[in-house]
Amino acid sequence: MFETLRQSLNVGVATTAYPATPPEVSTRARGRPEIDWPAWQDARPAAAICPTGAINCRDEAGVRTAELDLGKCIFCGLCADVDRAIRMTNQCELAVRTRERLRSTARYELRPDGTQARMIEAPQISETGEKTEALGRELQNRIHSLLGRSLHIREVDAGSCNGCEVEINALSGPIYDLERFGIHLVASPRHADMLLVTGPVTRNMELALRKTYDATPEPRLVVAVGACGCSGGMFGRNYATCGSVDSVLPVDVYIPGCPPNPFALLHGILLAVGRLEKR
User: Mind listing the UniProt keywords for this protein, alphabetically (predicted)?
Assistant: First the structure.
């Protein structure tokens, strides 16, 4: 016992100070792909190699519309391998309240050979996204007044590969220590304030997910976790899956990533209940 105590004293406090301090993410970790939009010469190679369609482009009347959808991105880095205008970062605080906030779109004037001559419209978020974001903030304020000091989460695996579950499990350890915020994982939706849903929703899990949502008392929150939860990921919508979580339930917060690391999960959960501190 004394040896264990001695080791604990030598180690000191292991718990991260996040969100009071920036997330301590390895420089080797993969997060948001960063595009040098003004210098981007040709979106076609990256769009062609992207396995989920997170990068896509379409041409019309000499103008190319290029889009990056973080909700579909699995952070594989293939786009950065074929395009010098793209680099992978370790930025993980990517959670948003609306699906539109995960999309960035720019427009370019084209050369005769199909490359991009110049950017004529910088990346922007649709007006729909901004209006929905404002409504989300109003909802957040109402929920924060009720749940801000305590939150109970029911995690639902609707069809994931369990990559997201591994990261969620880490939240209960001493490094991330989810319970220091008064946030607890519970076994029953009847005890929950939030559903943390992973995976593309398989058709065999659709009814179970709806029943879980109905069993959760109001006011309730739904957080879609990972690329699969945000968009269907690699699987999309097919004979076996319904696709993204928002195709089945109303979603309050989206946490992109494949899988999102524990800091990304903390960011999304705290965003949902208005507990993010200013740094």
Answer: 4Fe-4S, Iron, Iron-sulfur, Metal-binding, Ubiquinone
pLDDT one-digit tens code per residue, 187-231? 999 999 999 999 999 999 999 999 999 999 988 999 999 999 999
Q: In whole angstroms, what is the distance from residue 165 CA to residue 159 CA?
A: 11
240 CB contacts (<8 Å, ≥6 apart)? 202, 203
User: Looking at the domain assignment, is residue 279 inside a domain?
Assistant: no
What is the C-alpha separation between 225 and 228, in angstroms, rounded? Answer: 7
Token pair, residue 128, equals 């729909």
SS3 59: strand
CATH code, 197:
3.40.50.12280
Count of positions (residues) in the chain: 279
88 and 158 in a single domain? The answer is no
- Cβ contact 200:233 at 8 Å: yes
Is the same domain home to 144 and 222? yes
Cα separation, 278 vs 123, in Å, equals 26
Among 121, 143, 172, residue at a domain's last position: 121
DSSP 88-151: E-------BSSGGGGEEEEEEEEPTTS-EEEEEEEEE--HHHHHHHHHHHHHHHHHHHHHTT-E
- Give burial (CB, 10 Å; 0-12/13-18/19+) of 42: buried
Tell me how far apart the alpha carbons of residues 265 and 181 are, in angstroms, rounded to a whole number.
13
- Give SS3 for 154: strand
Q: C-alpha distances in angstroms, 11 versus 21, 118, 185, 240?
A: 20, 54, 27, 48
Whole-number Cα distances in Å, 257 to 168, 251, 264: 13, 16, 8
